[in-house]
Amino acid sequence: MAKILFSAVSLRSSLPCLRRLHCMSKVLRRDVDSNTLPVGMTPWLPMATRIPHQRCDSYRRLHTTPTVGIDVMLKDKQLVLVHDGKSTAINNIWLRDNCRCDVCYNHTTKQKNFDVTKLDLNVTVEGLQREGSELHIDWSDGHKSIHSLDFLNTQCLTDKTPSERRKLTKLWDTDTMTKCMPEAVDFTQYLKDDELLKMVLKNLLRYGIAFVKNVPPTIEDTKNVAERISFIKETFWGKHWLLTSDLKWADRAFTNERFNCHNDTTYLSEPAGAVIFHCVGHDGEGGMTLLVDAFNVAEKLKTKHPGYYDILTKFPVRHDKIIPDRKIHSVGEGHVLQLCPATGELRRVRHEPTSVCTRHSESKDLGLFYHALSTFTKEMSSPENVLQLKLKPGLVCVVDNWRVLHGRTSFTGKRQMLGIYLPRDEIDSRYRTLLNLDI
Q1: What is the C-alpha to C-alpha distance for residues 317 and 350, in angstroms, rounded to an integer?
Q2: What is the pLDDT of residue 156?
Q3: Average pLDDT, the chain
Q4: What does the pLDDT look like over 197-235, one tens digit per residue?
Q5: 335 class by beta-carbon count within 10 Å (0-12 exposed, 13-18 middle, 19+ buried)
Q6: pLDDT value at position 342?
Q7: CA atoms of 336 and 315, how far apart (whole Å)
Q8: Stretch 99-105: mean pLDDT
Q9: Nearest-5° angle of CA 139, CA 143, CA 144?
Q10: Burial class of residue 343 (count of CB atoms within 10 Å of its CB; 0-12, 13-18, 19+)
Q11: Residues 186 and 213 sit within 8 Å (Cβ to Cβ)
Q12: Average pLDDT score over residue span 169-189
């Protein structure tokens, strides 16, 4: 069986733009971990690194890794990458589908032109030539591609577990959060300084909470805090809501009772990604805001009761929101613990026991589910996991609604809590574009 082997070529002689891209990527990754940018530095996105039109688009990856030590070979008409003594065969169909030439890919819209229905499912590599960090491939369907080894290294050889999101996440309980409370940024500076916006995003990613101080206690200024991150997620509550104990809406939140920690909008197909809280007024006692890192609690559950953790990732749960006088009946379905399909890591918590409407089942899993839900909820209420804060006018709290659950203690007097929802997709987009993260 014939083999064509190409020796590894160092990237030290590669294009200067690739060196710059890699260096900047390392700086930005270090920045996320250190929480401060080097003086005078702003994130650099490789918008000007586009190579000639006939070449592949993979140079535009925000994250590149050195391809030193990678050998390539052609074996049975299939590309094989060899790195650290391990051989990885690259699927021909996948490789052909990811061609980035101008015929197959629109570099302006960042979308494929290639029609997958016309893909030859038996396509093979007929010719292979390496030129530095590029691979020139001749296909059996007559097409010619140029692939970047950086792209193939990232997509095929780089270990994606744990994910970059998980690496940057700092789990916390009451004690640890008390010692490392995220610093609040100034409202006026936050509106005009991207570095402070990045700090808020980093804290939101790292801890699941972030703060902005000196915010005028108005709807408009609170919206300004929200819209600096993303457009607002409008629901049947409107673009914002103002919680008072007047039962204006038939919801427990519109009372002065204690409300244990929960997610908002579990009754939607896609729960809100984040919640903006701003207490714009309170003339009584109590009303402490409760926050708990549900990811941390889930990790404890996984260690102590792996069977309970497992059932909460698999048992389907229905959440209903019914407000008859407003003709509202919203339903959201999913698992209490939703895992990422790619990595198996915990991606989202959907936990609001007061709205659970799980249908009856004779399956033994139903009883196991309730044991697991009860244990998880008790752990969520444990003082060692619940952080208590007194939010006052001027201090806005941004909460990751997929990770950090919130609640409140009972209160007296008139308490007004202004709230705004943000969509998850837009927040993640900010992580990728402003923080240069592969999330």
Answers
A1: 9
A2: 83
A3: 84
A4: 999 999 999 999 999 999 999 999 999 999 999 999 999
A5: middle
A6: 85
A7: 8
A8: 88
A9: 85
A10: middle
A11: yes
A12: 96
Tens of pLDDT, residues 120-159: 999 999 999 998 888 999 999 999 998 888 888 888 876 6
Contact 152, 82 (CB under 8 A): no
Long-range contacts (CB closer than 8 Å, 24 or more residues apart) made by 31-39: 32/168, 32/202, 32/205, 32/435, 32/437, 33/168, 35/199, 35/202, 37/195, 37/198
Token output for 166: 């998980």
What's the token pair of residue 151?
């792209």
- The answer on pLDDT for 103 being more than 80 is yes
H-assigned helices in 92-173: 92-97, 149-152, 164-168
> Rounded to an integer, what is the distance from CA 212 to the centroid of its chain?
21
Give the Cα separation of 47 and 220 in Å (integer).
34
Task: Specify the amino acid at residue 89.
Answer: A
Per-residue pLDDT, 5: 42
* Alpha carbons 364 and 366: distance in angstroms, whole number: 5
Residue that has been written with the tokens 């082997």 in this structure: 5
**What is the reported pLDDT for 2?**
42
Output the CA–CA distances (angstroms, integers) from residue 301 to 177, 349, 379, 387, in the order listed. Answer: 19, 13, 8, 19
Q: How far from 64 is each of 26, 48, 68, CA to CA, in Å?
A: 9, 16, 12
71-84 pLDDT per residue, tens: 888 999 999 988 88
Q: Which residue has the higher pLDDT, 357 or 416?
A: 416
Q: Which two tokens stand for residue 165?
A: 């999101």
Please report, for residues 20, 24, 60, 85, 283, the alpha-carbon distance to residue 38 in angstroms, rounded to integers and kept in the order given. Answer: 16, 12, 23, 38, 44
**Token reading at 27:** 């700086």
Task: Report the SS3 class of residue 425.
Answer: helix
Contact 156, 147 (CB under 8 A): no
Which residues, in sequence order, are bridge partners of residue 135? 130, 147
Q: How far are the Cα atoms of 95, 132, 149, 235 from residue 158, in angstroms, in the given order?
A: 16, 20, 12, 40
CA atoms in the 13 A half-sphere facing the CB of 380: 28
Mean pLDDT of 375-395: 97
Would you tell me how many other CB atoms lie within 10 Å of the CB of residue 82? 17
- DSSP, collapsed to helix, strand or coil, labels residue 219 as helix
Taking phi first (over 0 means left), then psi (-120 to 50 degrees means alpha), and beta for anything else, what does residue 87 get? beta
